[in-house]
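Dear Dr. L.,

I hope this message finds you well. Following up on our conversation about the binding site, I have prepared a predicted three-dimensional model of the protein together with 5-amino-5-deoxy-1-O-phosphono-D-mannitol. For your records, I am including the exact sequence and ligand specification that went into the calculation, followed by the structure tokens. Please feel free to forward this to your student if that is useful.
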Amino acid sequence: MCGIVGYTGRGPALPVLLSGLHRMEYRGYDSAGVALLPAGGGAPQVRRAVGKVAALETAISESPVDASAPLGIGHTRWATHGAPSERNAHPHLSRDGSIALVHNGIIDNFLALRERLVSQGFVFRSETDSEALAHLVEACRADTLLESVRRALSFVSGTYGIAVAASWAPGQIVVARKGSPIAIAAADGVACVASDAAALAGRADSVAYLDDGDIALLVPGGFEVRSIEALSPVVRPAAPLDFAPDAIEKGGYEHFMRKEIAEQPEALENCLRGRLVDEDGTAKLSGLRMEPRDIAALQSVVVTACGTSYYAGLHGTYAFEQFSGIPSRIEQAAEFRYRNPIVAPETALVSLSQSGETADTLAAVREAKRKGALVLSVCNVVGSTIAREAGRGVYLHAGPEIGVASTKAFLCQVAVLSMMALLFGRTRRLSCQEGRTIVGALKALPDLVRAALAQEDAIVRIAEKFAGARDAFFIGRGWQYPAALEGALKLKEISYLHAEGYHAAELKHGPIALLDEHVPVVALSPLGPGHDKMLGNIQECRARKAPVIAIATEGDSSVDAFTEDVIRVPQCPDFTAAVPVVVVEQLFAYHVARLRGEPIDQPRNLAKSVTVE
Ligand code: M6R
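The resulting structure of the complex is given below.
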């Protein structure tokens, strides 16, 4: 995710900015930049580079800035609007070049703002939503920088953490927060800001965190925080800043995978933000560039992907059929590309890929395009090859995923496909009321994940009991079938424990022969259609002495007769129940792998991005 750092003081800002940017590298980013404001005025000097902070340091050494400048702001960008490039990197300058701005978050009304600013003569140099903010501050210029920023923000909807500096406001940095974290600190003659307190470690003993709706003015040696709306002063208490170097790298977690599991509620919020329309009971996915008549003409949806993305895609096909009534199927990308598949212009080919670089999925996209299908991408990495070649699609906005085992991308893929299915459904057969019910259920996803995360102690106890197993099965029915496949994949890839995901009804057609007292079966059994059948399948396992780990609905005791190892998930509609279940599976796999001492973030033989066939 993007990172912000800023410094105003007596000494040079540049080393503080660069060390702060380095400390935020663990968050993942694709470009970086700084703006330095020389003492006594003068326009901001901006240097930006694609790639690592080291590339920015090279750019600065090749084209030096005023190294003594006592004020500056810096940024690491993880692309959301516009591909990673030098011109899309932050800081962005206003039209007159006097204002520099860095931004984390997503501006929902950026297209409307951009249109209005362009009509007023502002020229955009980037494809970002953030640049609009820099121009807007210039358009709203008042007596002070604080008031200019405040006025500008009154026109903005979306999320932001921003830091702004201007040549005409020497020594000042204005910061504001709505939905994206901002920490500020002041000490002897200096004041600093960062989106991640880790970036300030060693610079201050304590930091204050802004709340949503706060705006603050930083000057050398101090800051004042106000409410954006009323401008009334507010007090934000300081918290001690105490980071070990390793904690800085992983945001306080032992592994990136665990950090990314914890980030899922926020990832889902970012993924859903601005895309669900309560009133009409539908979804708004402008990147698809599909008119109602295009959706009405669809004859089929084919989803193609690999690995975890494939399982999210399988879940998606259920949503397409149930919500929209369009015949849907999933194809492994590697099969699709070589099978001479039948696709027609009325087929929507949905290619799913976290990285957007998976070789087989990319080849499937090219094959589908050759055959004239309407190709839609669902990727996490902005500007990735699949997203570019598809030309239309939806980004996950899950934030960077560094652990090889995919976690937050899976949940966001499920969320995006559900929104696509809702949009298609509302265009074809769903009533407004049915659509509203689905909107409500999708909005509840982050809370479902929070509830599942809260089960971690119980999950650890069960992981301790079974960490020594050699084989395991995951079984599920209906919407829980893709979740069973995903749970088994998670466990095998990081714990090296042999695991198989099966449809619960399929077990007796072969694999039940493998069950005995040494082979645990994870039974995905939340309430919903087929629950009684699932209880029957659990009994079949118990009859073979297999220990059962049940994932069941809160308040439902129907599984308790068969096992004491039960993890509870909240009650919710069947089409969202896989989300908390998968979070439980992620934590189970994580803790089993941790207890077995495996290298969780980089399992043997695996790569984050599989760019070979
Ligand atoms: O980047 P992609 O989503 O296209 O990657 C597909 C698979 O390689 C990926 O999901 C893989 O299965 C993960 N390691 C699973 O955790």
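In brief: Residues 252-443 form a domain with the Rossmann fold fold (CATH 3.40.50.10490).

With kind regards,
A. P.
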